[in-house]
Amino acid sequence: MPQHRSHWNSRWTFMLATAGSAIGLGNIWKLPYMIGVNGGSAFVLVFVACIFFVGIPLMMTEILLGRRTQKNPLDGMQALASEAQASSAWKYLGGMGMVTGLLILGFYSVIGGWVLAYIFEAGGGNFSQITAAQSTTNFKALLASPLKLTFWHTIFMVMTMAVVAKGVNSGLEKANNILIPSLFAILLVLLGYSMSVGDMHAAAQFMFKPDFSKITPVAVLSALGHAFFSLSLGMGAVMVYGSYLQRNVSIARTTIYIALADTMLGLLVGLAIYSLVFANHLAPNAGPGLIFQTLPIAFGHMPSGNFIGTLFFLLVAFAAWTSSISLVEPAIAWITENTKIKRYSAAWGLGLIVWLLGVAVVLSFNEWKEIKIIFGLNIFETLDKLTSTILLPLGGLLMAIFAGYVMKKNHVQEELDLNNQHFKLWQFTNNYIAPIAIAAVFLFLFGLVK
User: Fold this and answer.
1) Contact 299, 127 (CB under 8 A)
2) What's the CATH code, domain 11-445?
3) What Å distances lie between residue 334 and 71, 90, 213, 338, CA to CA?
4) Where are the domains of the chain?
5) What is the pLDDT of residues 297-351, one digit of tens each?
C-alpha cells in the first residue's frame, strides 16, 4: 500500500462520492425515457429488482476489490492476481476499465455540454410558448453548430478537471459534499412544483401501477442492462473509490444505501418529468429527446416555466458533473501512483487528450457526420456502442468471476465482513445470478435473443 495515499474522511463522504458517480445522465436523462418506451410500470418493476439482485452484489464486488489493495484498478488487479496466485493477465481488466472511463468521458462531456447550453436556453426565456416544431429545430440547430458544441464541451471538461486536479479530499470529496445535497434539494423543489401544476396521479399510475402484461423479454433485458449501467459498474470508477475507503466501513451496508439513493433519485425524477408531460398532453414515449425536445415544450407552457426549466437543467448538470469526475479518476490514480507526474499536471494533461476526443465527437454531429467507423456508426455512436454494450458489461462480468472464482474465499470474507448466511447470499448472486444476467444482456444486445 502506498504510504501517503489519500482516503475518504468518513463513510458519509464515500457514500456521497460513489452516489455521485452513479447518479448521472443515466438516471436523469436515460432512465425516464426508458421507462416511457418500455411500458412504464413494467419496466420500473423489473429495473428495481435488477438493482437489488444484480447491481448491489456487483457494486459490493467492485468496492471490495478496490479496498483490498488500496491501489488504482490496473495495479490493484495485478496485486490481487498475485495474492490469489493467478495469471498476471488479470491486470488488464483494471486497464480496460480505466480506458473505458476515458472513452465514455469523451462523449459524456459533449452531452454534458448540451445540458449547460440548455440551462441558459431556459434562463433566457427561450422556452416561452415554444411549439414542438420549434423545440426540435432548436435542438437540431445546437447539434449542427460545431463552435457552440465545442464551447460547451470545453466548459464541461474544465469543470471536471478543475475538481479532479485538486485531489481526493480537496477536490472529489468537497465537490460531492456540495453537489449531491444540492442535487437532492433541487429535485425536491422540482417535485413539489410538479405536484402543484402537473398531473402527479397520472405519472404515478404510469410508473407504479402494476401491469404485468407489459413485462416482455425486451423490457426485462433493457431494465437489466440499465440497472447495471446506472450504478457506474465495470469501468473501475467504483473500484478506485473503494480503494480510498477505510477498512472499518461496512461494504454491504454502504452499497445498499448508495443503490437506494441512486434508484430513488431516478424514480423521483421520472415522477417529476411525467407529471409535467401528462399535464401538457405530451407523449410519454418520446425516447432520447425527452428532456431536450419534449420537456422544453412543457416548461414553455406552465407558470414560472423558465425558472423551473433552469432549475431542472441545473439538476441534470450537477448529476453529469459528479459522474464525469469518477470517469477520469481511475486513470489519474494510476498516473500519480506510477510516475513522478503530479496530480495537477496529470489531470490537465489527460483532460486535454479527452477534450480532443470530445472534439471528434462534436464533429460527428455535423462536419464529420458522414464519416462512419464500424457497422455504419459515426464516431459518437461507435464510442457509445463500444463502451455501453461491450466494455462495461464485460468488465462487470470479469470482476464477478475474479471475486467469485479466483480470489481466495477467506480474503473476500475479510473485506465483506458478513455473517455466513449473508455471505452465501452474496456468493449466489455474484457467482451465478450476475454472470448469467450479464450474459443474457450480451445475447440480447447482439441479437441472439429476441
Assistant:
1) yes
2) 1.10.4160
3) 8, 16, 49, 6
4) 11-445
5) 888 887 888 888 888 888 888 888 888 888 888 899 899 888 889 988 999 999 9
